[in-house]
Amino acid sequence: xxTSIIWxxxxxxxxxxxxxxxxxxxxxxxxxxxWQPPAVxxxxxxxxxxxxxxxxxxxxxxxVGKPDLAFYQVPxxxxxxxxxxxxxxxxxxxxxxxxTLPCAHRDAHVRLGISRTFEAIPPSCLESRxxxxxxxxxxxxxxDGSEDQPVDL
Length: 153
Known about the structure:
Layout: E1 5-9, E2 12-17, E3 22-28, E4 31-32, H1 56-59, E5 84-88, E6 92-102, E7 109-121, E8 133-145
Antiparallel strand pairs: 1-2, 2-3, 3-4, 5-6, 6-7, 7-8
């Protein structure tokens, strides 16, 4: 079960789900800054900010050519509930996942270790001393895979 972290300032808030490796919402002056689904159905489409692995055509599109959403599929290993929280405190959290992505168009794959660190930046560190600030650091390690398969964040 996912337990959100919420960082608040007078200017807004950031809601993070470490167990899902993503920011679920950013509210600034009462307005949501990220897309939110009408209803969360437990699948991958939780809204907010998420990590995309490139080249997207290799991992997400099941057919090359003219884009058709009927042939778009998020790889099972990127399911948002597969993340492991390795650090969590009042101002930061770190989430990690290991994924194997098969290329949808040829006999190739890549196995990746991914870590994401989310950090709140206190308003006192901002030049204006007011506002909402945070930082996301993402690292990607290629653990195994086809020699000629490109991959990026």
